[in-house]
Amino acid sequence: MGRRSITTESALPSLIIPCPRCAKRMSFRSARTTKAEPRILDTTYACDQCGAEVICTSFCRHDAAQAA
Fold first, then answer.
1. 11 located within any domain
2. Which of 13, 33, 35, 58 has the smallest count of CB within 10 Å of its CB?
3. d(Cα 60, Cα 56) in Å, to the nearest integer?
4. Residue 29 located in a structural domain
5. 53-59 β-sheet, strand order
């Protein structure tokens, strides 16, 4: 019998985001939905070295299980 791999989806970023200003590593700051559309998520990253911020906007899927 083969082993089954069980993985769970992580909320952590899957890659390292470099700072566009100084090329150092950026850190996660916050994630919040927009006021106009709650399915749109703005994730903010900031550079610890120079303070630059990057906002990544993504579309969130809401499952029926999450709404309950």
1. no
2. 35
3. 12
4. no
5. 26-33, 40-47, 53-59
How many H-runs (helices) and E-runs (strands) does the chain carry?
1, 3
- Do 65 and 50 touch, CB atoms closer than 8 A? no
Residue 30 has pLDDT above 80, yes or no: yes
At 22, give phi and psi (nearest 5°): -120, -5
Write down the pLDDT at residue 9: 59
Run of H or E including 67? helix 64-67
Residue 29 is predicted with a pLDDT of: 93
For the chain, the domain total comes to 1
Distance of CA 28 to the CA centre of its chain: 8
